[in-house]
């Protein structure tokens, strides 16, 4: 299932850092011409297969969205049969939906073995779905292989549902560390981005690398090698901030991230409101940090 293991190939512990202490939440200032991102979340609990999706989505809507979250981040570990898709398990307004080839058979997927399954899946998707296959691929395959996977995905999706957006979702951690050796250059990765409708970034601030998005080296390397040369719209497909430095620090970082995302023209901002697969706390549990996210959701773009 979903796992985010921040292996400390880069040790960036904060020593002697002074955290910004804030008095309370504040709405982001901006001109009337600013186009705010959609705001959403992944919401779940351990064990990842057994929790009540609707219960946790409703709880996230109440606790961090105040009823204004738009996109739910959704994952299936395969290409499920129509009727068994995870997105069906909640009444979220829209879905940012990820699947993977059955048994992670990337070559079989590229060769067309699953075209019929994928076509049926895509035909059944609800409106305003953003779709991706193999999110965070950089630690699993080469850029050229991913370009082939993306080409297959775009061809099949657009043949049956031109209205469905296909995004490439990247991992900031790999673009910073290249720990698996697949992103020494943007070869293949940029080609994949150019045929996608948009590019997303999963970017975390764990205890060992507690940085705002604007300070994140992986984000900037991805931005310069993928987002800018691709010319595609972009969004924050997962953002998680460790609770280890306290609620004031996290609330402050959330506000900084939101201002930065607005300034940089992000399409969406989705928070990782869960501890699934994690060894530290990501849930927004405190009153101040929840109110910050509620303010973001209130400002965020609406669907319909």
From TrEMBL:
Signal keyword on record: yes
Top-rank taxon: Bacteria
Keywords recorded for this protein, A-Z: Signal
Signal peptide region: 1-23
InterPro entries given in the database record: GH (IPR017853)
Full protein name: GH26 domain-containing protein
Organism from which the protein derives: Phytoactinopolyspora halotolerans
Organism classification: Bacteria, Bacillati, Actinomycetota, Actinomycetes, Jiangellales
């Amino acid at each position: 299932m979903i796992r985010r293991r921040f292996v400390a190939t880069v040790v960036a512990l904060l020593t002697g850092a002074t955290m910004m202490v804030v008095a309370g939440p504040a709405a982001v200032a901006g001109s009337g011409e600013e186009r705010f991102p959609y705001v959403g979340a992944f919401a779940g609990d351990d064990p990842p297969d057994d929790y009540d999706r609707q219960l946790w989505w409703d709880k996230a809507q109440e606790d961090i969205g105040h009823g204004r979250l738009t996109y739910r981040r959704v994952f299936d570990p395969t290409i499920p049969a129509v009727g068994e898709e995870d997105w069906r398990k909640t009444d979220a307004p829209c879905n940012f939906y990820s699947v993977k080839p059955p048994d992670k058979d990337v070559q079989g997927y590229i060769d067309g073995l699953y075209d019929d399954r994928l076509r049926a899946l895509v035909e059944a998707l609800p409106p305003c779905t953003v779709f991706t296959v193999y999110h965070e691929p950089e630690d699993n395959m080469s850029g050229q292989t991913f370009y082939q996977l993306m080409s297959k995905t775009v061809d099949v999706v657009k043949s049956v549902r031109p209205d469905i957006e296909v995004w490439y979702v990247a991992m900031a951690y790999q673009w910073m560390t290249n720990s698996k050796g697949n992103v020494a250059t943007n070869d293949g990765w940029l080609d994949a981005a150019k045929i996608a409708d948009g590019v997303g970034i999963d970017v975390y601030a764990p205890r060992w690398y507690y940085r705002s998005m604007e300070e994140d080296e992986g984000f900037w390397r991805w931005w310069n090698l993928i987002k800018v040369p691709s010319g595609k719209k972009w969004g924050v497909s997962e953002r998680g901030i460790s609770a280890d430095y306290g609620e004031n620090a996290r609330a402050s970082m959330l506000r900084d991230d939101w201002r930065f995302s607005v300034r940089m023209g992000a399409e969406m901002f989705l928070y990782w409101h869960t501890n699934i697969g994690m060894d530290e706390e990501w849930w927004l549990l405190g009153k101040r940090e929840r109110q910050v996210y509620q303010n973001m959701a209130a400002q965020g773009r609406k669907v319909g």
